[in-house]
Specification:
Elements lengths: L4 H4 L12 H13 L5 E4 L6 H13 L7 E5 L6 H12 L9 E6 L6 H13 L4 E7 L7 H4 L3 E4 L5 H15 L7 H9 L3 H12 L7 H7 L5 H13 L3 H15 L3 H12 L7 H19 L4 H14 L2 H9 L2
Parallel strand pairs: 1-4, 1-5, 2-3, 3-4
Helix pairs in contact: 2-3, 4-5, 7-8, 8-9, 8-10, 11-12, 11-13, 11-15, 13-14, 14-15
The structure holds adenosine-5'-triphosphate (ATP) and magnesium ion (MG).
Length: 327
Amino acid sequence: MEAIWTEKYRPQKLREMVGQKQTVERLEALVKSGSVPHMLFSGPAGVGKTTAAVCIARELFKDGWQDRFLETNASDERGIDVVRVKIKNFARTLAVGGSHKIIFLDECDALTRDAQNALRRTMEKYASTCRFILSCNYINKIIDPLQSRCATFRFLPLKDEEIRRYLEKIVSEEGVKTEKDALEAIIEVSEGDLRAATNVLQTAAAFGRKVSGKEIYSVARSLFPEEAREILVLAAVEGDFQAAREKLIKVVNSGGLGGEEVVKAFHREIFSIDELPAQAKMALVRALSEYAFRMMEGASERIQLDAFLAEACALSPKSAQRTERGT
Ligand SMILES: Nc1ncnc2c1ncn2[C@@H]1O[C@H](COP(=O)(O)OP(=O)(O)OP(=O)(O)O)[C@@H](O)[C@H]1O
Ligand SMILES: [Mg+2]
């Protein structure tokens, strides 16, 4: 079976990481000093948090780093107690050579306050044998006592240029044939997430054809930008609810798309609709965020998308005329 590219191209050394310049420099300096403090990594998905932690362990411990590195999910569905037992078993023994071990805890922001407090006590208990690297998407969900025990490192979404270079390397090494618009499409749908970008490329390349932008949008289960744009124009510019809704239903059904993908595609397009005044764009974004939130909370996607389109239509001066004419 073919290797998974996100694994195959995962950097082995900190200096091979893409972007995250400041963070990587600070981490390299710590590794060079021979010991690391407890650390807190924050940032969105697929930007190098786990990768950096593994690189640190490799560079600090060299051969046998696997015995001194534990990666586990802090929000293990079986509960924080299971996590604590895992940590206890790993931390119990001193590492060969007497220096530390590293425990990497993913998804710490999914822990309740109580669980985070329990984690804090665990960290203190094993501080003599272990260093903890906590990882989260949202640092504001981490309680202060945990934050203050860690050196914090922020991981940013990767820049378009960084993603492009990384993809170009894979494309050339794997001999993937691409149309001109393919990489731009990947950059657009992956929104700074290098894991997503790499996976979309591999999935599209697996068809064995020349990869096109159109194929990327369909692999990424994303609305084509033109389609998203057309629906938004029908609603917010033309005020034609019926037509916007029909078009939306058609593309959603044919692509098997979910509400989240539709919201993301709309969000990417809103700002490039020249026919819309700035005020209307702002109102659209506000409306979109409201309906996106409701969907996240579990409200029916169909109804929320309809409601969004209705609100978008109300922004159009033409909508009032339509209502008067009864069309
Ligand atoms: N900065 C980066 N440099 C090089 N490769 C990267 C970088 N960020 C991500 N990748 C690639 O994407 C894959 C996923 O990255 P990683 O597991 O480090 O993400 P993460 O930040 O831990 O995400 P999550 O929050 O979802 O756990 C890696 O296998 C690697 O191939
Ligand atoms: Mg990770």
